[in-house]
Write a structure and sequence with these properties.
Blueprint (H helix, E strand, L loop, with lengths): L12 E5 L12 H9 L4 E5 L18 E3 L9 H17 L7 E4 L3 H13 L3 E5 L3 H6 L5 H21 L2 E4 L2 H7 L8 E3 L14 H12 L8 E8 L6 H15 L3 E8 L3 H13 L6 E4 L7 H7 L2 E3 L13 H8 L4 E4 L2 H7 L4 E3 L2 H13 L1 H18 L2 H16 L2
Parallel strand pairs: 1-2, 1-4, 2-3, 4-5, 5-6, 6-7, 8-9, 8-11, 9-10, 11-12, 12-13
């Protein structure tokens, strides 16, 4: 809901500076789930990125909060959006700081502005380092030279944000080690991503297919095999691996195989590259790309598929328990991911790991041949995942952290 920024409350107030527009982005962000649960105990002020390039026109989800708004300079490029609107954000943020008791931020430039104001007001600050921001920020731009410039600039801002924050929360032990090069490790806490355990659960495939046919008019049941990729369609995903798997599966089974992609790219060039490669290899007819769908339909896509394919590049940005891994295992659906120590720490042997593209080809064929058996074996894993990574449980860890800072 929209509340005037002069609104005052007797409750403890938390300002949240998110990585995107939490209420209008097509996919609910980690901080949305945490903020929703924190709002049961605290007053939430939320910086809203009006006309954000990746946002939908209408509100997609609700949150009990006061939105901190500004009249934006409209621009399509994400990096330029934050840079050009920085002065406007700062003025809006200054108006609410007299009401704020604690800050949780998860961005680059907006974080920098907020942390400076928080330090002036002597307010405790938590940096939610859910993503490797210097890397992801680089992909706001097309040209390599601009990507390098953006990455270096983002790194400088991020280092300042890290040093000025009282506590850093990150999603992986790999990130903790990386951030430990900048700040003392005793400032860093690891709190992973999570799921809505009531939403992500096993559903009979027939029901999942009927749900998608009824809501989106998708006739996916006509395909013999469905390989699903969902999430960000960006350059930290190996398109070459994805297409080589599709080509291999079609060759082995000689059946109707669909590579289904559901998501959005932060850089339009990434999607163009994928489509161009698919056409060059005569695979475009075996691919279907959908824009982000309502969050409540994601479990139906997972349960309707034979498996989820996550050909993530071995890059630092992927060194965390990605939502797609947690959500897929919660639905008792097979998922193939690179063999990384970080993933094994969180998930043990529940996913299917691969060492290289050749190994992945063999693993995918095995999954498709023994699909029902593997899904049946994953049912017990589903219950464990849904309990371990419940947003309710994870938000409770966050609340304990918030309380510890407020007591200082």
């Amino acid at each position: 809901m929209m509340i005037d920024t002069n609104y005052k409350t007797i409750m403890t107030s938390i300002l949240i500076v998110p990585p995107n527009d939490l209420l209008r982005h097509p996919i609910p962000n980690r901080l949305y789930h945490i903020a929703k649960r924190l709002s049961e105990h605290y007053s939430i002020y939320l910086l809203t990125y009006s006309s954000h390039p990746l946002s939908m026109k209408d509100v997609q989800r609700s949150l009990k909060c006061a939105e901190v708004v500004f009249k934006p300079v409209r621009v399509k490029n994400l990096g330029l959006y934050y840079i050009l609107n920085a002065p406007l954000m700062r003025e809006s943020l200054k108006k609410v700081f007299s009401n704020i008791d604690l800050v949780i931020h998860a961005n680059i430039v907006p974080s920098y502005l907020t942390v400076k104001l928080a330090k002036q007001a002597k307010i405790p600050v938590i940096y939610d380092y859910m993503d490797h921001y210097p890397y992801s920020g680089a992909y706001y731009f097309k040209a390599k030279v601009l990507q390098t410039l953006a990455s270096n600039t983002a790194l400088a801002f991020v280092k300042e944000n890290l040093r000025a924050s009282d506590i850093i929360v990150t999603v992986s032990y790999t990130f903790k080690k990386l951030l430990g090069l900048v700040v003392p490790e005793d400032k860093i806490r690891v709190i992973p991503n999570g799921i809505d355990e009531q939403l992500f659960k096993p559903i009979p495939r027939e029901i999942a297919l009927k749900t998608l046919e009824k809501t989106l008019e998708l006739d996916l049941g006509r395909h013999d095999h469905i390989l699903l990729y969902y999430g960000s369609i960006d350059l930290w995903v190996s398109f070459d691996t994805m297409l080589s798997i599709l080509k291999h599966v079609k060759k082995i089974f000689q059946k109707d195989v669909l590579m289904l992609l559901v998501g959005k790219s932060h850089n339009p060039e990434a999607l163009k590259e994928l489509l161009q490669k698919a056409r060059q290899q005569n695979l475009a007819d075996s691919m279907k790309i959908l824009k982000p769908v309502p969050h409540e339909l994601v479990p139906s896509f997972i349960n309707a598929s034979d498996m989820v394919l996550a050909p993530l590049k071995r890059e630092i940005i992927n060194a965390g328990p990605a939502l797609k891994i947690i959500e897929t295992l919660a639905c008792a659906t097979p998922i193939a991911i690179p063999e990384l120590l970080e993933y094994k720490i969180w998930f043990g042997n529940s996913p299917t790991y691969y060492r290289d593209p050749s190994d992945l080809k063999d693993k995918v064929i095995e999954i498709l041949k023994k699909n029902e058996e593997i899904k049946q074996n994953l049912l017990s894993i589903s219950a464990e995942i849904r309990e371990k990574f419940s947003w309710n449980r994870i938000s409770l860890e966050y609340r304990h952290l918030v309380e510890s800072l407020l007591r200082l």
